[in-house]
Write a structure and sequence with these properties.
With 223 residues, the chain is α/β, with parallel strands linked by helices. It folds into two domains: 104 residues, 2-Layer Sandwich (Nucleotidyltransferase, domain 5); 80 residues, Nucleotidyltransferase, domain 5 (2-Layer Sandwich). It is built from six helices and eleven strands. The strands form two sheets. Strands 6, 7, 8, 9, 10 and 11 form a six-stranded mixed beta sheet that branches. It has a five-stranded mixed beta sheet with strand order 3-2-1-4-5. A hairpin with a 2-residue loop joins strand 2 and strand 3. Helix 4 crosses helix 5. The protein is globular and about 50 Å long. The protein starts with a strand and ends with a helix.
């Protein structure tokens, strides 16, 4: 049984997935209250399932809220250590794209746009068959995103801003959901459990001083 965790955006969700089927799930829009809601939500879900211990954990690594991403990762890694089970990561962008393709089987491709920092949008394009990313994750102002995203369908919390800037297309408001991890292709649910920031850090080192980074920061910011 896989425990999926998502706290990357304003939504907080958990799901138990077995053989590609969602057995139980819970979800709430909490804004910034992930730290208070997540562990009780997981405990309730496992109790409803008979007090089982999951065989593995999958956590949304972002992009999204800096604090939300960290809450989910901390919980996933801590539980994984306590239970002695493996922990892997997935992307919030892939979760939204997979859910959109499941909701509209005739759709060949779409873009995902999530609200980011400093008025920018996290943007990435996806194909349905086979499920694949059509480009790198980028963080752009709505006007810049509109200039490079031609997909008619745009899903995510930033979809309306992108479509408005472009003046055409259909915006579908959406946030990632842990239950949608059941829709992900294997290659999209085996990321390292590290934050996906989606943009360069705001802080800049003083002249002549190297920036302090961790291996996780270096890897995910370059992705």
């Amino acid at each position: 049984m896989l425990l999926a965790i998502d706290t990357a955006t304003a939504a907080c969700s958990v799901a138990l997935i077995e053989d590609g089927t969602v057995r139980r799930s819970a979800r709430a829009i909490v804004g910034r209250g992930h730290a208070e809601r997540l562990v009780p939500m997981i405990a309730a879900l496992l109790a409803e399932a008979g007090g089982i211990t999951p065989d593995a954990i999958l956590v949304d690594c972002g992009p999204g809220s800096f604090t939300g991403v960290r809450v989910g990762l901390a919980a996933a890694i801590g539980l994984g250590m306590g239970w002695g089970v493996p922990v892997a990561g997935c992307s919030s962008m892939a979760l939204i794209a997979a859910a959109r393709f499941a909701a509209d089987p005739a759709l060949d491709h779409c873009a995902v746009a999530l609200t980011g920092g400093h008025g920018e949008l996290f943007v990435q394009r996806y194909a349905a068959r086979p499920f694949a990313a059509l480009g790198e994750l980028v963080s752009l102002a709505p006007a810049a995103a509109a200039a490079v995203v031609a997909d008619e369908i745009v899903a995510g919390s930033g979809a309306a801003a992108l479509v408005a800037a472009r003046g055409s297309g259909e915006a579908i408001d959406a946030l990632p959901d842990a239950a949608d991890a059941a829709l992900l292709a294997p290659g999209f649910r085996d990321l390292a459990p590290r934050p996906i920031y989606g943009r360069a850090p705001d802080a800049r080192p003083a002249a002549g001083k190297p920036a302090a980074t961790t291996p996780a920061d270096t890897e995910t910011r370059a992705a």
